[in-house]
Write a structure and sequence with these properties.
The complex is a heterodimer. By secondary structure, chain A is of the alpha/beta class. Chain A has a domain of 88 residues: Nucleotidyltransferase, domain 5. Helix content of chain A is 38%, strand content 23%. In chain A, the strands form 2 sheets. A 5-stranded mixed sheet of chain A has the order 5-4-3-6-7, with helices on one face. Chain B is α/β, with parallel strands linked by helices. Helix content of chain B is 35%, strand content 28%. Chain B is elongated and about 95 Å long. Chain B starts with a strand and ends with a strand. The chains are: A alpha/beta, B alpha/beta. At the A-B interface, α1, β1, β2, α3 and β7 of A face α1, β3 and α4 of B. β7 of chain A pairs antiparallel with β3 of chain B.
């Protein structure tokens, strides 16, 4: 009978790594989003949403790839092709001026999005 | 437990870990497949086409949030309390599903201030927020 102990070791280590790393993968690009109490939850189950992250230092990421603002429209149009029914998720830093976010929203509108989802952290009602 | 015959009456025993391997690999696969990604968001709709040309959009109340943090409802300045009561007038009972406002915020404000304000609109019963 083959010795399966190393296989078990590897599988269990993978399992633990996956459990630990999964929240980080879910979070994607780290952004200090604003807080809000009346949020809705959208669940990504195979839809592969397009996420635009706008960090406090002004860097923009399309999913996990950094993109300069000048190229965002072009890159977003390519990424969003075939997903026109889906909303675009905007994950922007709370410390950016709203004009910056409006620019991104306008680009989303130009590529055909009818809805944007503005990501926020859930704030407890008591806060 | 399994035992392997060596020589004579000597036996070497080892734990059968195959079921454990099965379970852990299945768990691993299960985790990888079913873990959904959850976004917590405020939804905002975007006017399509020629925008203001649509009759529906014209009927929606327009809420503006100015750089000096004044609130304008259809061009008239209101306080937060007035905004809540006026929105209640706009959306009487039975309007569920149609409580939509168009929102315009000053670019000078921080995104944080805008989200706090949009959150208040949601608290006042607004279901759909359009950004213009």
């Amino acid at each position: 009978m083959p010795d399966v102990t190393p296989l078990v070791n590897v599988a269990l280590v993978l399992l633990i790594v996956f459990i630990v790393v999964m929240p980080m993968i879910q979070e994607g690009i780290r952004v200090d989003t604003p807080e809000a109490a009346h949020l809705t939850q959208i669940v990504e189950e195979g839809q592969d949403y397009v996420v635009i992250s706008y960090q406090a230092d002004g860097s923009i990421y399309l999913n996990m790839r950094q993109v300069p603002l000048e190229r965002l429209r072009e890159e977003l149009a390519a990424e969003y092709q075939g997903k026109e029914e889906q909303p675009i998720v905007i994950k922007a830093s709370r410390s950016r001026p709203y004009s910056d976010i409006l620019q991104v929203v306008e680009i989303c509108q130009n590529v055909g999005a009818s809805t944007v989802e503005l990501m926020a952290k859930r704030k407890d009602e008591g806060d | 437990m399994s035992a392997r015959r060596l020589t004579g009456s000597q036996f070497e025993s080892s734990l059968n870990v195959t079921p454990l391997a099965d379970v852990s690999l299945s768990l691993l696969l299960g985790f990888m497949v079913i873990t959904p990604i959850i976004f917590q968001t405020l939804s905002a709709t975007l006017p399509q086409g020629s925008g203001a040309g649509s009759g529906q959009i014209k009927q929606d109340p327009i809420v503006q949030y100015t750089a000096d943090r004044r609130i304008l409802l259809d061009g008239k300045e209101v306080t937060r309390e007035e905004l809540q009561s006026k929105l209640r007038e706009y959306f009487p009972p039975g309007f569920e599903g149609k409580r939509k406002v168009m929102f315009s915020g000053a670019g000078e404000l921080l995104y944080d201030d805008i989200i706090v304000f949009l959150d208040e609109l949601r608290a006042y019963g607004v279901e759909t927020i359009g950004i213009r």
